[in-house]
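Technical annex B. To support the medicinal chemistry partners, we prepared a structural model of the target in complex with UFG, based solely on the information shown next.
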Amino acid sequence: MTAPRVLLTGAAGYIGSHTWLALLEAGFRVIGLDDFSNSSPEVLNRLQTLSGTAPEFVRADVRDAMALNAVFSAEPIDAVVHFAAFKAVGESTAKPLAYYANNIGGLLALTEAMQRHACKTLVFSSSATVYGNPEQLPIREDAPLSATNPYGSTKLMGEDILRDLQRADPQWAMALLRYFNPVGAHQSGLIGEDPRGIPNNLLPFVTQVAVGRRPHLQVFGNDYNTPDGTGVRDYIHVLDLAAGHAAALYYLLDQRRPITANLGTGSGHSVLEVVRAFELASGRPVPVQFAPRRPGDIAASYADATLAHQLLGWRTTHDLAAMCADSWRWQRQNPNGLAG
Ligand code: UFG
């Protein structure tokens, strides 16, 4: 049997690039698609170094129906993993139309192309943001869903669109994967998270403080109802997340049943715990300043990760120390990201 051929959208991004490598290592044939709107072409060189083969790649916006048609017409595609989307919560409140146009428009263009070409196996990049402000911890997949910002709305709507499609045509096999907080980088230090401008997320900010690009970390809130008062999140190594996508693809291609699953470790860490773990891993001080709560933030969020384990046979293998060590190696080797 020939290896399944998988299209990755948003393939040059942080999670996309790590998943690309994981799928190649698992024996899939991969074709990547990206418009580099939030990534760098240098990722392709890095992937070539890591995999030993030239990556098969198409530069296009996922909303470009003609480009998608050309990809699906060139050679049959067995499954799609859809990452391509905007993902900054704050930016989404300032530019809601751009978020709906890209995230919803992209999903519609993609699923229409898939339907036209009878490719009905899809892994969708969803987010723990669909749980809004969770009532119960750890969060199970059957918890109530809500959105508190336009980015979150696009993920929730994306899930709704796919659930409707699945109901209308049960031939679709879909995995809706709800990521918690992806951090870390490939152990080679060749690929990792490369945010443009001032990082929104905790780990990229911490690594930039440690490398001397920024003077200190602002800790947003130390009066939450958590053990040390700072926000608690379920940080998951991007390599574990990538492996979760390979497991989901095996499941869909084999079982042809829809699945909605959390991808998290099942444990939470506070901002101050992350800072201490990072200082230990890097040997560098990370000065902090306490600041008011960030609007829209919640106190705590961590996954009940049992469903993905039961159905996919997947579980995380990297702890917080490994996440910090790998983020640090990536930052040290690429102090100015891929552009530098
Ligand atoms: N934090 C700081 N200082 C910073 C950045 C973050 O103290 O400079 C704190 C936050 O207040 C929060 C924790 O670090 O307590 C994690 O914040 P992130 O911004 O890294 O992550 P969030 O949990 O807020 O957001 C992430 C994704 C979103 C997604 C959300 C919910 O970035 O895309 O999880 O799933 F919507």
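Notes passed to the chemistry partners:
The two ends are 43 Å apart (CA to CA).
Residues 87, 89, 127-129, 152, 181, 200-202, 205, 217-220, 231, 233, 271, 294, 297 surround UFG (CB under 6 Å).
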